[in-house]
């Protein structure tokens, strides 16, 4: 019965889900029309919001391109490939491959979301090479499903913002609802958050295992298509070639980057932001490739798969601009309409649940943790305070809603899809099942814990 439902979801997505770029265009049209009718703004106003927003994610877009390119280049180093091959060799059949990939990718995303996205996809490629009869679509979907856990983990942008923000900044972000920093002991390490993490850390691999299709429905990939570029043999004759292969320049570059990484950890603790993750990827990539010339070639080869991010992210930035763009007369935005609709039907007991669901809807149109917080914090945080809900609970319900619908939002899947060489429709049918699992678990915790007086 479960596999029939899974197969139906896969067939439905394959038939009706357009290419990820067209998905972004359709969301753009929906947001444009909804903004006119739900906020009373003119078409010109919505066009203006779109135009102002379309280039607002340029820095973030470059960060995501680097996540993909630097992570892939690092993985092409012989030592990293040997590690991935070693892990993949532990799987003797498709079931073991899915379970191992699911657990490793979920745990890696718990540690850091950028690291987890890349590691999960790269391990999945090695699994596809090593294990015969493995459904490649499900394998990549399994690797991506680990991303569901990220915002409750150590790199969650909302809990880290609460822990590290100044009182004035937090007060401004939350319309006065928070006036002091909230430590991670009340967010990431709270009892309700740990409950969600433990259940998903176990549940995601098991649900992906349960989705393994029958042999007649299995779609494999020819391992020959997953072969990386051949290792080049370098002839060093000219002065330029000697510079490119210079051990001195290689050591100096690694030393500079390593010094900054160590200094950052020593002065700011082990809070990894995206820039630091990328610098670590770059440094390790240089180190493991052994010289600058080999690393340059690895970067050039890896950059070919970044086209989807470059094309689509400006459109998502435009969508965010229309979602947050407010009516000049009433100060009402489309995001505030959605958030306030859930607030109006909430009680102290149900508010965490409805905050989570509203964040899940908003995340379709604002697929960014920082963007989600900027849009919803000024609305949901004061509302929760008025109902007697503690700020840490409201904030984490927004964080989990932001992570939840990523399972059926191609925005974050693009790096993994670029590494895998697949399209969104190849994996989203399976990700619907992960979405349902996450919804049941997170809704259950946010409803049960208030009823039991635990939050």
UniProtKB/TrEMBL annotation:
Pfam families: SCFA_trans. It comes from the Bacteria. GO terms for cellular component: plasma membrane. InterPro entries: SCFA_transpt_AtoE. The keyword Metal-binding does not apply. The keyword Membrane applies. The chain crosses the membrane at residues 20-41, 53-75, 95-124, 136-154, 192-212, 248-266, 272-292, 313-335, 341-366, 427-449. Keywords: Membrane, Transmembrane, Transmembrane helix. PANTHER family: SHORT-CHAIN FATTY ACID TRANSPORTER-RELATED. This is Short-chain fatty acid transporter. It comes from Youngiibacter fragilis 232.1.
């Amino acid at each position: 019965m479960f596999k029939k439902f899974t197969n139906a979801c896969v067939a439905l997505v394959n038939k009706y889900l357009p290419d990820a770029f067209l998905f972004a265009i359709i969301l753009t049209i929906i947001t444009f029309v909804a903004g006119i009718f739900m906020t009373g703004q003119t078409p010109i106003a919505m066009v203006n919001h779109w135009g102002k927003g379309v280039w607002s994610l340029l820095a973030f877009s470059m960060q995501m391109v680097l996540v993909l390119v630097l992570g892939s280049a690092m993985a092409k180093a012989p030592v990293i490939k040997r590690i991935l091959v070693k892990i993949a060799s532990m799987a003797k059949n498709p079931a073991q491959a899915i379970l191992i990939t699911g657990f490793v990718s979920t745990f890696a995303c718990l540690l850091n979301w950028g690291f987890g996205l890349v590691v999960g996809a790269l391990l999945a490629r090695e699994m596809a090479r090593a294990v015969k009869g493995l459904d490649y679509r499900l394998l990549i979907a399994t690797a991506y499903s680990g991303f569901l856990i990220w915002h409750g983990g150590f790199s969650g942008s909302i809990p880290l913002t609460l822990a590290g923000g100044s009182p004035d900044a937090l007060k401004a972000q939350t319309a006065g609802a928070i006036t002091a920093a909230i430590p991670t002991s009340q967010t990431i390490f709270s009892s309700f958050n740990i409950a969600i993490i433990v259940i998903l850390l176990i549940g995601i691999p098991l649900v992906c295992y349960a989705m393994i299709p029958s042999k007649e429905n299995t779609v494999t990939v020819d391992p020959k298509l997953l072969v990386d570029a051949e290792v080049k043999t370098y002839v060093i004759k000219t002065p330029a070639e000697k510079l490119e292969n210079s051990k001195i320049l290689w050591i100096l570059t690694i030393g500079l980057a390593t010094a900054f990484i160590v200094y950052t950890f020593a002065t700011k603790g082990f809070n990894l932001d995206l820039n630091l993750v990328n610098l670590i990827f770059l440094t390790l990539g240089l180190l493991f490739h052994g010289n600058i010339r080999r690393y340059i070639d690895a970067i050039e080869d890896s950059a070919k798969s970044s086209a989807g991010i470059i094309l689509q992210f400006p459109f998502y930035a435009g969508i965010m601009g229309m979602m947050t763009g407010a009516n000049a007369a009433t100060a009402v935005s489309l995001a505030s309409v959605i958030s306030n609709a859930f607030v109006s039907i909430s009680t102290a007991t149900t508010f965490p649940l409805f905050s989570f669901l509203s964040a899940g809807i908003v995340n379709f149109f604002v697929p960014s943790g920082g963007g989600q917080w900027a849009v919803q914090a000024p609305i949901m945080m004061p509302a929760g305070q008025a109902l007697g809900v503690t700020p840490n609970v409201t904030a984490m319900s927004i964080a989990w809603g932001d992570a939840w619908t990523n399972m059926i939002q191609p925005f974050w899947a693009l790096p993994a899809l670029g590494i895998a060489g697949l399209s969104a429709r190849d994996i989203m049918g399976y990700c619907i099942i992960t979405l349902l699992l996450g919804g049941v678990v997170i809704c259950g915790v946010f409803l049960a814990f208030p009823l039991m007086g635990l939050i």
